[in-house]
Write a structure and sequence with these properties.
- By secondary structure, this protein is of the alpha/beta class.
- It has one domain: Cytidine Deaminase, domain 2 (3-Layer(aba) Sandwich), CATH 3.40.140.
- A 5-stranded mixed β-sheet has the order 2-1-3-4-5, with helices on both faces.
- The longest helix has 16 residues.
- The N and C termini lie far apart (31 Å).
- The structure holds zinc ion.
Length: 129
């Protein structure tokens, strides 16, 4: 069991949808926790932001710069994410976008980083077989 229930929900979602890429984002909408994952065109958090404009986002992977800009545009206030993205991360994993553009976003990363990065690694390893 993960201590932070939102990350437990995201973890369960990934475990129960093995055919999807193991990246998930969630937010509360009327006290219900809604979860999406990446689709062919959009990142999980991007889909949630456009549809629900949440104030707080939970993501298993650090958002990319494009999603970070979308967060600013839609006035997201808080981002909690799992593993750092050393290739495309915008919150310290690769870039620190908040240095370059005015925003009020608070973010905290590293929630169960090992678990979520391992899931991604396994997914891509299996794809290659
Ligand atoms: Zn993105």
């Amino acid at each position: 069991m993960l201590y932070y229930k939102e990350f437990q929900y995201l973890y369960d979602y990934i475990k129960n949808n093995k055919y999807l890429m193991p990246i998930a984002a969630g937010c509360y909408v009327n006290n219900q926790f809604i979860i999406t994952s990446n689709d062919f065109h959009k990142h999980a958090e991007e889909i949630l932001i456009e549809e629900y404009s949440p104030k707080t986002l939970y993501i298993t992977l650090e958002p990319c710069p494009s999603c970070f800009f979308k967060c600013i545009q839609f006035n997201v206030q808080k981002i909690y994410f799992g593993s750092y993205n050393t290739e495309y991360g915008s919150c310290g994993g690769k870039f620190i976008m908040s240095k370059y553009i005015n925003n009020n976003i608070e973010y905290t990363g590293g929630f169960y980083a090992n678990i979520f990065s391992e899931m991604l690694k396994m997914y891509f390893q299996n794809k290659r077989l």
